[in-house]
Amino acid sequence: MQTWEYSNQYALRSYAYLWLYAGPAKAILAGLQWLASSHPELSSIGGYSIVDDEAMLVYFGYRFVTAVASVICELYFVGALPRLFRFCRQPREDQQAAWKVKSVAVLLLICAAPSVGHASFSTLPTSFCMSLYFAALGGWIRLASPSTSFAHSTSTWSHRPALVVLCVCIVVIVGIVGWPFALLLAVPMALHFALKAISWSLIGVLVAAVVCGGVFVFDGSYFCTPYLCAACNIVKYNVFGAEGRGPELYGVEPWDYFLKNLLLQWNILFVMGAAVFPCIALRSMLASLWRGGRQKKGPSAAHVSSCSVSTADMASLAWYCSGFFVWFALWTRIPHKEERFMVPAYPFLFLAALSSLVVLWQHSPSPSPWLKRLGNVRQVGIVAVVLLFGVCSYGRTMAMMTFYGQPQKMWQDPAIRRLTASSVRGPSAAVPGLSSSASPMHRVVVCVGKEWYRFPTHFFLPHNSHNTSSGASTYAFLRTKSFSGALPKPFSSTEGSCAARSDMNDLNQENAGQFVEDMNSCDFVWDSVAEHTLSSSAQQTADENGWVWDSFTDNIGPASGDASAFRLLDPVNTPLLCRALHFPFLPYYQTCAKWHHLTLRTRRLT
């Protein structure tokens, strides 16, 4: 399917970005084909047939590769943290031993964050930016000398020019290949690099620009898109768009949208991240009290000095975390908001939350009994914060899997996959109601109703590259009352991405021919039915247009009496607490949710 952003007259998205995922996908497909031909005894992987389910195996394979790449970036970030949190300068051996344990704890916090885990598997540009910013932030922190303050750490910069160039290249790739607006997160980093290593930073910009420029020239010639960088087009449309165009066409949200969303996704860690500056100020104040009392009956002045917190230490923490606050302040003022817009800032938010925990946890000797008691209470409170984060993250993860994971589970179901695979059209059966360029022979057509945006992907439809006569499959859209905007359309079967698409627009208006003309064009109809209704939106549309459904029969869903029907949460009739978190072992959460039942109507075989 091609969206208007990828059409060559608009070119807001680059096909070069897709090759980051198409490359691993093609390699996985080649590996599956080799296994099927060379080792026929290996007929399945994880219960899925190498031949019949190869498209779905490719889907899970390239998402696994994406997740591994994201984890590598996160590990690189975690490995740099000992250089940042170095307030007590113990012997090197003691620091390494302590940070082995602390690094495991930090990794567990990252893994427990449902938003980071979800983004790590995604193929969105914002998720790509998040992973690269984990790596860039790790490199930036490594450039800080472990023995000097942030403000005077010039020696490491001069001795590690390759790391400077690498960090700059990563940031440039984020903006050009990923999402150009994400460059705003790197403003504090850019200022620091300009101050410390301006020449090597410019070299990094030049290297990244040359590489990305070459890629975009190839991308433009191969996919017939303008040579002008897609990043320029997306900025032009969203910032300098003509009247009637712009992101507001796709919905607006109140200023507190991201405040609520980050509380939902990060719960108590968002609070800790937002409070990083007060925590740093409190830590500095307590450090002053400790230093002021060392002359009385505290430990030796030398030991207190070695464990003190300098103003430069606190300033460095604040500067590393400041990118998140720049980003958050910007997006609260922009009317169009989506959850994914915060994803690139997750590394900076996590660092801010971790900084709050570390500066409050960090122990310094104190001659005052009440300060010692305060330190004990503080550490108990931090343990409580971590436990609360784990519990809330578990509840949020279970809510996402239980309430919104059913569409994918439905199309993974072996019975449904056998059903769709057995319904391939015959050699002479073109698909009526779809344009000839979008409906080649031998195709299974799944029509989706109001739940079109929940349909997992065409990878879950039957496709067998070993037997081209069985054909590929596609999905199409049914007109419903719930949506009337622009939807993606199939690529041209003759010209591909080079086709001039006069049937697309950038006004979020319905495109010509984006809906099927007759429901009998469909081999399957996928939709949902609320608990208090008897028909889906697709059925209502069919009734209004006089379409005959006699050739279809329900076999999945409440109409068939199937008690194990796949379901979706009904957010309108479900209480807020119930849909935000889900603890399946608690009685309240077993009965509070209201549901939409997913239905699959199939053509009756004769």
Automatic annotation (TrEMBL):
Molecular function in Gene Ontology: alpha-1,2-mannosyltransferase activity
Gene Ontology terms: cellular component: endoplasmic reticulum membrane
Subcellular location(s) per record: Endoplasmic reticulum membrane
Coiled-coil intervals, chain numbering: none
EC number: 2.4.1.-
Chief localization: endoplasmic reticulum
Leading EC class: transferase
Gene Ontology terms: biological process: protein N-linked glycosylation
Segments traversing the membrane: 16-36, 56-78, 99-117, 123-141, 162-191, 197-218, 268-290, 317-334, 341-361, 381-404
UniProt membrane topology term: Multi-pass membrane protein
Keywords: Endoplasmic reticulum, Glycosyltransferase, Membrane, Transferase, Transmembrane, Transmembrane helix
Protein's pathway: Protein modification; protein glycosylation
Similarity remark: Belongs to the glycosyltransferase 22 family.
Name this protein carries in UniProt: Mannosyltransferase
UniProt lineage: Eukaryota, Discoba, Euglenozoa, Kinetoplastea, Metakinetoplastina
